[in-house]
Amino acid sequence: MINERGGISGRKVRFISYDDKSNPVTALELTRRLNRGDDVLLMFGSFGTPGNFAVRSYLNERQIPQLFIASGDDHLSDPSLFPWTMGWQPSFKGRGAHLRNYIQASYPEAGL
Q: How much is the pTM?
């Protein structure tokens, strides 16, 4: 539908996916390939913490948005240092705090 209506700012949308096999070195190589060869507009929904850390500086230096990262690491959502990177999942720390609060309220005999 987006392409039928002219794309985004005149650019047709193509979804390109490469498998980095959760290897940070491969993630950076494939990200460079996407940037240089495939001329990507943005990265969307990248999975995992190590690979996203590996490509974050590269993408931010080039002002390529790295959106909706599938990792709960707090450091992948720090706009003061990496304004072009945005996490999606709740942080691991935040989820842990919510679970702790739920357990304490629901099971006070657990002694947490």
A: 0.77
pLDDT at residue number 72: 83
Query: Count of domains in the chain?
Result: 1
DSSP state of 69: E
- Strand order from edge to edge, sheet including 85-87: 43-44, 66-69, 85-87
Domain that holds residue 43: 3-110
| Nearest in space to 18 (alpha carbons), one of 71, 55, 60 | 55
Residue 83: burial class (beta carbons within 10 Å; 0-12, 13-18, 19+): exposed
**What CA–CA distances, in Å, run from 8 to 11, 12, 20?**
5, 7, 27
Alpha carbon distance 34, 7 (integer Å): 19
Q: Which amino acid is at 105?
A: A
Q: Name the token pair of 41.
A: 């507009």
pLDDT tens across 5-18, in order? 999 889 889 999 99
CATH number of the CATH domain containing 30: 3.40.50.2300
